[in-house]
Amino acid sequence: MFPYISLTTIYFLTIKQILLTVRTGLTDSICPGEWYKVIDKIKKCTKCKLHKTRRNPVPGEGPCNAKIMFVGEAPGGKEDETGRPFVGAAGQFLTELLGMAGLRREDVFITNILKCRPPNNRDPEPDEIEACKPYLVRQIRLISPKVIVTLGRYAGRTLLGDAGVKWTSMSRMHGKIFSVELYGVKLKIMPTYHPAAALYYPKLRPVIVRDFKEVLKALVEELANEGKRGESGRPRTILDFLEKS
Ligand code: SF4
After folding, report:
1. How far away, in angstroms, is 50 Cα from ligand 1 center?
2. Nearest Cα to 85, choosing from 184, 194, 202, 192?
3. Are the C-beta atoms of 69 and 53 separated by less than 8 Å?
4. Ligand 1 atom, smallest distance to 51 CA
């Protein structure tokens, strides 16, 4: 009887996970039940005024056990239309930047401070950030990444501020690595410009490229080597580490 009940339970849990995965389109890995609950709550959320104007909430995308997380400001038009983060022009540039750091988009988790689009892509408002932040906090605790890259000043100021680091300005803080404890997770934060900023202001392009190509790449390689320490042989690739750890 017991094995029968166990297998039935496992069967229904698996079916539930598959249905939720199909519904959310978020992950193809096995994630804790809490993970799906958070996504479900975001999908039904009416905690701030943005729920009235959004077409689709955008919870985020990527493995629930990603080692590196990217946090932007808020979904834009394309994201609102599709329910997926960073799929417009800025998203294409982000995918390009990931490649420069030796990363693939499918290996990292990408989300925003706000899960719903502000009308006309206006800046996030403080009450919206406060209302939405608990979802990001849950995501960070569940994913427990080793690195968070913040994209844009709202993400940088919010997460570094919550980690006890005083925000000064993007021009001073971008491309620096901060070792912090954020919401109970020990990790490194690298703030950088939002990819959309580089599209609007071409002068910023080499700056953000450098942050990814030099600073983030070196950090990812350092993590890869840490992960391999004590094992025989040399690391094959950065992704080899990310997949194994
Ligand atoms: S932005 Fe966040 S808090 Fe506001 S409705 Fe969307 S999910 Fe809820």
Report:
1. 6
2. 194
3. no
4. 5
Helix (H) or strand (E) holding 109: strand 109-112
What would the pLDDT profile of 77-126 be if each residue is shown by its tens digit? 999 999 999 999 999 999 999 999 999 999 999 999 999 999 999 999 99
> Which residues in 121-144 are b (16+ Cβ under 10 Å) and which e?
eeebeeebbebbbebbbbbbebbb
Q: How far apart are CA 244 and CA 231, in angstroms?
A: 12
Which residue's alpha carbon is nearest to atom 4 within ligand 1? 48
Give the type of residue at 124.
Answer: P
Contact present, 185 and 145 (Cβ < 8 Å):
yes
pLDDT (0 to 100) of residue 224: 85
Both tokens of residue 45? 């959320």
**pLDDT, position 30:** 76
pLDDT along the chain (245 residues), means of 10: 45 46 48 92 98 97 96 97 96 97 96 98 96 98 97 97 97 97 98 96 97 95 76 49 51
How far apart (Å, rounded) are the C-alpha atoms in residues 165 and 3? 52
Structural tokens at position 222: 């350092």
Measure 58 CA to ligand 1 centroid, in angstroms. 9
Per-residue tokens: 169: 């300005």
The H-or-E segment that residue 148 falls in is: strand 147-151
Domains of the chain as residue ranges with CATH: 28-244 (3.40.470.10)
Question: From the alpha carbon of 42, which atom of ligand 1 is closest?
Answer: 7
